[in-house]
Amino acid sequence: MSNSGQENLGTGIINKVFGLYYTVNDGQKDIACFLKGKNRINKEFKKFTNPVAVGDNVKFQYNDDGSGSIIDLLPRSNLFSRRDKGRNAREDVIAANLDMVLVIQSFLDPPVNPRFVDRLAVRAIKENIEPVLCMNKEDLATEDMTNSIMEYYRNSGLKIIVTSALSMNGIDSLKNMLTGKRTLLAGYSGVGKSSLINSIYSDLNLAVSDISDKTGKGRHTTTNVIMYKQKDGTELIDSPGVREFGLVDIEPEELGSFFYEFTQYRSDCTFSNCTHEHEPGCGVKDRVESGIVCRERYVSYLNMLESLLEYREQKYR
């Protein structure tokens, strides 16, 4: 390939991130790349800890040694990110250009954490990405456990699929849901993320360490993210490092719009900027009292709202 003009430039998709190193697929092969002039790509990206992420479409330069230099980020349809508290905290971009976020939880060992699920669902909905909850380890679940989850998400609009990597129940349905889509897999230690993926795509034969169930804490945690692409076009992205998940870039007055069951009753609120917390004449609180909206889910919302209000107060002191 020529070393001059446009001939040594290419475009591709980032499919691996290892700290400050990236792998870009140009449609034919994977190329080891680094980011050229990290903050010179775009001044706007100084707010990110990592300006580019798995799933990003980029323009890069072919180097003589077979490596590549990423020189530009092409437009995104969406991004999935987290941001920690703090006036100068920067945003961690986990993945980009997604069709779905699959939040994997288990009924037991460890037990489901609905408030963690809610935070990830809010982030996905904010970016116009479909969130789906996968409840794994059905073989350990009692009827009461299953009913409790269904009750919690009653009228929420969140799609739920129940699986067992042990009995293979729900595996075919999960594969159909994933097929042809680019999906971010979110789940922490012990939920069975690796086992599920091996059940669907046995050719991957992933060890536990291949899909990172362990998560890091803190804004500066280095994470390795990989996209596994299948012959049918399905793309699965592992997402280590999401145990701590901040939503501080959302305005408190906006939060209710990311809870589907709340949006149905906003028009019944007396105040147009109702936060569904202390205001009189709130259509959402009325539905909580009448049992239409799950009270525990409403409490999860209030916890998020409180953290957003505290952050805004600290930010503008």
What would the keywords be for this entry?
317 residues, alpha/beta, OB fold (Dihydrolipoamide Acetyltransferase, E2P), Rossmann fold, Ribonucleotide Reductase Protein R1, domain 1, 3 domains, five-stranded mixed barrel, two-stranded antiparallel ribbon, 7 helices, 13 strands, 24% strand, globular
Characterization of this structure:
With 317 residues, the protein is of the alpha/beta class. It folds into three domains: 5-75, OB fold (Dihydrolipoamide Acetyltransferase, E2P); 81-238, P-loop containing nucleotide triphosphate hydrolases (Rossmann fold, 3-Layer(aba) Sandwich), CATH 3.40.50; 252-315, Probable gtpase engc, domain 3 (Ribonucleotide Reductase Protein R1, domain 1, Orthogonal Bundle), CATH 1.10.40.50. Helices cover 23% and strands 24% of the residues. The protein contains seven helices and 13 strands. Strand 4 and strand 5 form a beta hairpin. A five-stranded mixed barrel has the order 1-2-3-5-4. The protein has a two-stranded antiparallel ribbon with strand order 6-7. Residues 213-222 have low confidence and may be disordered. It has helices at 114-126, 143-152, 171-178, 193-200, 260-263, 283-290, 295-315, and strands at residues 9-18, 21-25, 30-35, 57-62, 68-73, 79-83, 91-96, 100-106, 130-136, 159-162, 182-186, 224-229, 235-238.
Shape: globular
Helical content class: 10-25%
Structural class: alpha/beta
- In total, the number of domains comes to 3
CATH topology grouping of the largest domain: Rossmann fold
Task: Kindly estimate the percentage of residues that lie in beta strands according to DSSP.
Answer: 15-25%
Strand count: 13
Rg, Cα atoms, Å: 21 Å
Low-confidence stretches: 213-222
Strand order, biggest sheet?
1-2-3-5-4
- Tally the helices: 7
Task: Report the order of strands and helices.
Answer: EEEEEEEEHEHEHEHEEHHH
Largest sheet composition = 5 strands, mixed, barrel
Mean pLDDT across all amino acids: 87
Query: Architecture of the largest domain, according to CATH?
Result: 3-Layer(aba) Sandwich
CATH class value of the largest domain: Alpha Beta
Distance between the termini: 56 Å
The CATH superfamily of the largest domain appears as P-loop containing nucleotide triphosphate hydrolases
